[in-house]
C-alpha cells in the first residue's frame, strides 16, 4: 500500500516533503494531516548514512528527539552520518564517533546497528 501512495502522491521525494497535490483522496489527506505528529516520533534507519545529516536529522536511538544533544564542532554543519561508517565492514568507526559525540551518545551509536541496504 505504501508503494501505491508513494507512486501516486510523492514519487520523487521523501514522505516528509510530500504535499496534498492535485485531487487527493480522503486517505491521503488524512495521512498528511497526521504527518507532523508522526514525524516527531520518527527517526532515520541508518543504512549507508548518505542522506542523513549528522547534526540536524533524527537518527540517534535512545536520545531525546533522536538528535545529538551536543554538537562538537569537529565537523561541518553539513556532515553526513556516512562519515562515521566503515563501508567495507558495515560498522561504526568508533574513533570518529568518540571525537564528535559526548559519552552518552557514543554508547547509543556504538550499540545501534548499521542496517544492510535493501
Automatic annotation (TrEMBL):
Q: What is this protein called?
A: Uncharacterized protein
Amino acid at each position: 500500500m505504501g508503494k501505491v501512495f508513494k507512486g501516486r502522491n510523492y514519487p520523487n521525494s521523501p514522505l516528509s516533503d510530500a504535499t496534498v497535490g492535485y485531487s487527493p483522496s480522503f486517505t491521503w489527506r488524512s495521512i498528511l494531516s497526521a504527518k507532523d505528529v508522526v514525524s516527531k516520533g520518527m527517526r532515520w534507519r541508518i543504512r549507508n548514512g548518505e542522506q542523513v545529516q549528522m547534526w540536524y536529522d533524527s537518527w540517534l536511538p535512545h536520545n531525546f528527539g533522536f538528535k545529538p544533544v551536543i554538537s562538537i564542532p569537529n565537523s561541518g554543519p553539513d556532515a553526513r552520518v556516512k562519515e562515521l561508517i566503515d563501508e567495507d565492514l558495515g560498522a561504526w568507526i568508533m574513533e570518529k564517533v568518540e571525537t564528535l559525540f559526548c559519552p552518552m551518545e557514543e554508547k547509543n551509536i556504538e550499540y545501534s546497528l548499521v542496517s544492510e541496504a535493501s
